[in-house]
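Quick one before lunch.
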Amino acid sequence: MAEIEGLHAENAEQIEALRIKYLSKKGAISALMNDFRNVAPEQKREIGQKLNALKTAATEKLEALKNQYQQEDHIDDSIDLTRPAYPDEVGTRHPLSLVKQEIIDIFARLGFSIAEGPEVEDDWHVYGALNFADDHPARDMQDTFFIQQNPIVVLRSHTSSVQVRTMGQQKPPIRVVCPGRVYRNEAISARAHCFFHQVEGLYIDKNVSFADLKQVLLQFAREMFGPDTQIRLRPSYFPFTEPSAEMDVSCTLCKGKGCSMCKGSGWLEILGCGMVDPNVLEASGIDSKEYTGYAFGMGVERIANLKYRVKDLRLFSENDQRFLDEFEAAH
Ligand code: PHE
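Model of the phenylalanine complex:
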């Protein structure tokens, strides 16, 4: 009896083995039952009761083992059903996408539409139509990634190529911004990368003047960096604009007083601009006596750095989640 009570089993096979051992036709209890007929008549009553009790106990024990096993079997304890569900991980927008969109939105309100073009370009769209001299250093292997030499195919080094495409496809008035990724053959460091992003703008119409350019850029600077922002234009040179200028905004950190971010000058350089060179208009079949235009171009990383004070340019392309999560609240 004690032996029956102490039985235990861990799986269905072990339970079946116990059934065969004790309760099958050839099992131990059946054997005892068979021996019953040899029991003396005066003991039959007592032994019979004990045998019946033993059989019932064995049957019940096996039943209990089966139940216990089935219950355990249905609860897979590798799954904790009381555990709270994982919260939905909603992706965040990349800081460069946020800034690019902000730039585009400002110019869209000023009447600019968006134009996009290919990153792999021919020489004409990246340099030739933009008045670059044949021996201009930007056409050098040091600055440009060449895909093919003859005919020349390159990774575009600025999105001015999209402006050339737009001028080839549309008649003035033209008012577009060209966002996109550009490539330059630079050693990767905290301050330079072999690819980055630009938004360039182009406006061509009758009587477009430098004053129009200045007004639009002032408006942009104030919307982007705050209503107190001042701008400053310094003479510069680009093959495709004449006159050309570089634009600074008053330092977003010290408001022009001079700090480490603006290296004490109170100003931060943010973009290049100028009046479209008549040669560029003519190269695209636009009559430079009838039309004038302005163009500007800025780096999205540069603007993002000033807005978010990102110290290392490489963070933008490393996809470190700790960095990307910082911008969750920004949209
Ligand atoms: N294409 C110039 C660059 O990549 C920027 C620029 C655009 C300057 C338009 C003037 C006018 O640096």
